[in-house]
């Protein structure tokens, strides 16, 4: 049983440093080591883009988007004019691509973003971590196909493989099913509400007013439905 601070990304004492700067739960790190080796034998250089991300880092991303210092995108990756959005529309738009601080799956040490490092390094275009790079013709398409067939054998699934009205499609996002299910079951609406109330987060009033919908639509996932 994790503490509220661990569940909401404010304490990483339950994690180990899997690779330099990349923290995961021990069971997840071991599974990733095995999967990386298998991918290597298949000619794929499976590497992390990001693993654990603490609450303060997620908060900085959120606040900069709320202020318009970072672009807010629609579901088709097109920039939105935040001046034309109500507070509720703005927070839902941000949540399409960025998790609510305190509620990111990256807080748990069970989830990570991955790419094919060799393929990206040999690609002349700048890597942006967008769905097109994992589609046919993209540098990480072979990786995406390999994950389709193999991720589940190592205990992983992709919670955002398809857009279903909440978070946008993220074919690069892996989640260790057994460990993530435990975290998700422990992150209650009350725990999240307390975290938001304690954070210096922009749009707090709108977030708290819409928190039950946010919790249902963007946080509570049916892992069986998303499992390959």
From TrEMBL:
Name of the protein described by the UniProt record: Peptidase M15
PANTHER family xref list: D-ALANYL-D-ALANINE CARBOXYPEPTIDASE, PEPTIDOGLYCAN L-ALANYL-D-GLUTAMATE ENDOPEPTIDASE CWLK
Residue ranges occupied by any D-alanyl-D-alanine carboxypeptidase-like core domain in the UniProt entry: 22-176
InterPro entries assigned: DD-CPase-like (IPR052179), VanY-like_core_dom (IPR003709), Zn_M74/Hedgehog-like (IPR009045)
Domain of life: Bacteria
A GO term for molecular function: peptidase activity
Alphabetical GO biological process terms: proteolysis
CDD domains: DD-carboxypeptidase_like (cd14847)
Species of provenance: Bowmanella pacifica
Pfam families on file: VanY
């Amino acid at each position: 049983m994790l503490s509220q601070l661990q569940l909401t990304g404010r304490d990483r004492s339950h994690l180990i440093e899997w690779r330099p700067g990349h923290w995961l739960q021990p069971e997840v790190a071991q599974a990733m080591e095995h999967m990386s080796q298998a991918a290597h034998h298949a000619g794929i250089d499976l590497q992390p883009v990001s693993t654990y991300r603490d609450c303060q880092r997620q908060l900085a991303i959120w606040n900069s988007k709320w202020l318009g210092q970072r672009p807010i995108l629609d579901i088709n990756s097109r920039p939105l004019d935040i001046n034309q959005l109500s507070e509720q529309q703005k927070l839902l738009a941000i949540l399409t691509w960025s998790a609510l601080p305190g509620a990111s799956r990256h807080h748990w040490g069970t989830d990570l973003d991955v790419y094919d490092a060799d393929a990206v390094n040999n690609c002349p275009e700048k890597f942006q971590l967008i769905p097109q790079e994992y589609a046919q013709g993209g540098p990480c398409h072979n990786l995406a196909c390999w994950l389709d067939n193999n991720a589940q054998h190592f205990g992983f699934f992709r919670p955002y493989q398809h857009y279903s009205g909440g978070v946008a499609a993220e074919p690069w996002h892996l989640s260790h099913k057994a460990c993530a299910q435990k975290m998700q079951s422990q992150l209650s609406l009350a725990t999240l509400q307390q975290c938001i109330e304690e954070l210096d987060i922009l749009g707090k009033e709108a977030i708290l007013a819409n928190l039950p919908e946010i919790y249902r639509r963007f946080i509570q996932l049916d892992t069986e439905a998303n499992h390959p």
